Amino acid sequence: MLPRLTDRPREFKRELRLLDATMIVIGSMIGSGIFIVSADIGRTVGSPGYLLLVWAITGAITIICALSYGELVGMMPHAGGQYIDLREAYNPLMGFLYGWTLFMVIQTGTIAAVAVAFAKFTGVVFPWIGERHVLLSVPGLTITTAQLLAILSIIVLTFINTLGLREGKAVQDVFTIFKTLALLGLIALTIFIGRNAAAISSNWSVFWQGTWTRLSGEGIPTTEPLSGIGLLAAIGVAMVGSLFASDAWNNITFTAGEVVNPRRNIPRSMVLGTGTVILLYLLANLGYVLVLPIRGAPDATDVLSRGIQFAAYDRVGTAAASVIFGDTAAIIMAILIMVSTFGCNNGLILAGARVYYAMAQDHLFFKKAGTLNNNAVPGIALWVQCLWASILCVSGTYSDLLDYVIFAVLLFYILTVLGIFILRKKLPNAERPYRAVGYPLVPALYVFIAAAICLDLLILKPKYTWPGMLIVLAGIPLYFLWRKFSGPTDGA
């Protein structure tokens, strides 16, 4: 077998307590998605009832997965989290495929997407930062001021996290508390002050009347009613956005080597964190449908006529705030989202490097990435992650990265939850301080729902999901090549 992390000296500093761990869960989940993706969901399902249902289903399966995942964390609370779980449940190849995909798409792709969102909203406050302001243009490569800022934000956060865990968690705690309070404030304003009678009446009249609105290349909308299988398929596609906004809760498991009493605190932080975020997301969307009609026209000139579906640049949060704050809403929401995305990326950057550290310790990543710097953090792994995420900032759009990420994420969540069944048989006597709630029915329910969503995306969004699958499969030959040239290992 490959060398186990339990056989190696404990060099990480255990400084993350329950509050810190919960802040990483909440902070890594809340980025820009909750303020944006409801527009695309609105176009895909076309009614407030189904909009809220999409978020409710997303919340349910996210919490189910977290409740199930807690068993594996309790068994193996080591740096690397999901990579370790897959390695132990299946084999080193499966662990490598996860780590490879995490590095190529999941973690770095999300970091890039969140950084680009940070830059876009900074451009609202400082107009000279934007995608139209080109700094460099050569065949095959264009760098704008927005992309440059996105890259700089990743570099700054990476540097902060190389200074030590204490610095990284301080940034996480401050930004997470601030953006959570700000989101609560927005929710309270939309629900209790900004309610719009016309929007409520409009939404109530089509509450369960699903429609799918698509825009042609000329921006002309075509709408089709939804029912039966078509409705189910639309809900599955619509969940791409909500799943993206609800992901990254598992990042806390990557830092298990630095959590105080990880067998107890990591499962608790996942449940507390995911539960808090899902509740906030549901309330935020309730606020949206109380302030804005879900249906609208793309060529309308005012916020209410554009509705949730066609909020300018998909900025539903800004559109809702503008009903309350008027012209200043864009600046207020931009600052809120800047804070939210900056804090979100701090958590993603902090956690992701721990996976590459664990892989390097197993001789399955760059050797230097498996070392800790003088501040007891994986400095080289942090900078390698920074480099690739920065490259992704200039190579793809926010939407493309979102689609790639979700399919790969779901695929490995399915395999991880299935790992609970495998390890129950493989290691029946292993210590399990926490057991999956409702085993075997609840974990099986998650696998079924997530697999159905994956199949739905493969059929209806093949342009993005099949490339995601190919990225995963490309790791198979790379695994054997890496093992061949990386030196001797202790197992298969």
Describe the structure.
The protein is mainly alpha-helical and 492 residues long. It has one domain (5-485): Amino acid/polyamine transporter I, CATH 1.20.1740. The chain has helices at residues 18-29, 33-36, 38-45, 48-75, 82-89, 92-125, 145-162, 165-192, 197-205, 228-245, 251-254, 262-291, 303-306, 316-325, 329-361, 379-393, 398-426, 441-460, 462-485, and strands at 134-138, 141-144, 211-215, 221-225. The strands form two sheets. It has a two-stranded antiparallel sheet. Strands 3-4 form a two-stranded antiparallel ribbon. Mean pLDDT is 88; it is low at 5-9.
Explain briefly what this protein structure is.
With 492 residues, the chain is mostly helical. The chain is built from 19 helices and four strands.
- State the major sheet: 2 strands, antiparallel
Please, how many domains? Answer: 1
- Bulk shape: globular
Q: What is the H-and-E element order?
A: HHHHHHEEHHHEEHHHHHHHHHH
CATH architecture: Up-down Bundle
Runs with pLDDT <50, length 5+?
A: 5-9
Major sheet strand order = 1-2
